[in-house]
Amino acid sequence: MELLCIQSQEHPELPLAELNAVMECEDIIADIEVITEGLIVLKNISEDNLNPYYEILTKRLGYTHEIHELIRRSDADNFEGDISSIDWSEYIDESFAVRVKRFHAKIDTVATERKAGSLILENCDDIKVNLTKPKSLVRIVAFEDKFFIAIERIKLNKKHFEESKPHKRPFFYPGSMNPKLARCMVNLSRVKEGELLLDPFCGTGGILIEAGLIGCKVVGSDIYWKMKNGTSINLDYYGITDYRTFNLDVRELKMYEKVASVVTDPPYGISTSTGDIDGDDIFKEFFHAIYDNMKDDAYLCMASPHYVDLNPMVDEVGFEIVEQYGIKMHRSLTRIISVIRKKLD
Ligand SMILES: C[S@@+](CC[C@H](N)C(=O)[O-])C[C@H]1O[C@@H](n2cnc3c(N)ncnc32)[C@H](O)[C@@H]1O
Predict the structure, then answer these.
(1) Which residue minimizes the CA distance to atom 8 of ligand 1?
(2) Which domains does the chain show, CATH number per domain?
(3) 135 C-alpha to center of ligand 1: Å?
(4) What is the pLDDT of residues 91-111, one digit of tens each?
(5) How far is the CA of 296 from the centre of ligand 1 (A)?
(6) Residue 239 in 3-state DSSP?
């Protein structure tokens, strides 16, 4: 069986990297077919695995906007016949809407929606069209001259990333990253539900909120009491209960338990924001402090500015960089997202 994923196109690599990381840590067995940027099919999923995989992916992914069960692959010549030959009673419950999305296809989306909708109505009893609140959503994706005919079984909570933007939280302080990127970084760290994730520069708790929402136990610390306190306020607000927060300098970090994942956005730029640690030394200090607090197979996912070379620093401590992605912020700043782990002996 197959799942059709429609991903964000706001970054050329991160959505796919995030999907790969979640599949790896959740042991999802499927082949990935990249149709084009933003359109992915997960193939060769066994029938038993389809629902559990569908649930995990909709719960976890940040840069994937929609996931559907793929019913049929079609093309321009066979589209109408294929729509008519599907037993829609297996997929549609009372009311439905057809929505068409195009990727490099020159079709009239409204006309295609109408045509498909009327063919479905003709071939299935006791259903009606409801364009505003359909119980079932038929998603058709057109790519070049191909059509992917799919049904949405589980809705992704698309509103979450809008509603959890930093300025909408009860405790706000400038510098918190956008929640989709925070979720993606949590996923890149390959952490699983129930495992312990640490952010030692927690600020307003943006990363911890995303980790808490996918079911991780979270720990945050920050050199400023005000930030540690703000993180607790924000975690409470999002209903996250399994957390601890501490007020400490990263150099003093000594965890009560080794963590399964570290995800963080260290401060950079001015020394006043780093607890008086000079320039890039904050990164060196951080790597030294974090190493012994991580399990041997734990991953660290962090952000840094392009002008800081992390390679010699991680190497000195015994880490290695396994993945890196650049996000252009403006003309003179690219943010680098690195996935790091302990060197294997
Ligand atoms: C870029 S912000 C993190 C933003 C955070 N991801 C959020 O969602 O709000 C960096 C944080 O590191 C904290 N910080 C600076 N120096 C530190 C140090 N030496 N030890 C621990 N925390 C420190 C700052 O107070 C700041 O809150």
Answers:
(1) 206
(2) 2-152 (3.30.2130.30), 163-342 (3.40.50.150)
(3) 44
(4) 999 999 999 999 998 999 999
(5) 25
(6) coil
The residue among 264, 257, 297 whose CA lies nearest residue 283 is: 264
Contact assessment for residue 104 and residue 36, using Cβ atoms and an 8 Å cutoff = yes
Query: Which residues have CB under 6 Å of ligand 1?
Result: 175-177, 200-201, 203-207, 222-224, 227, 249-250, 265, 267, 273-275, 277
pLDDT in tens, 258-277: 999 999 999 986 544 666 77
d(CA 323, CA 208): 22
Check if the beta carbon of residue 231 is closer than 8 Å to that of residue 245. yes
What separation in Å is there between the alpha carbon of 42 and the centre of ligand 1?
Answer: 38
How many helices (DSSP H) and strands (DSSP E) are in the chain? 10, 15
Angle between helices 206-213 and 179-188 (to 10 degrees): 60
Radius of gyration of the chain (CA): 23
- Model pTM? 0.96
Distance 321 CA to ligand 1 centre (A): 22
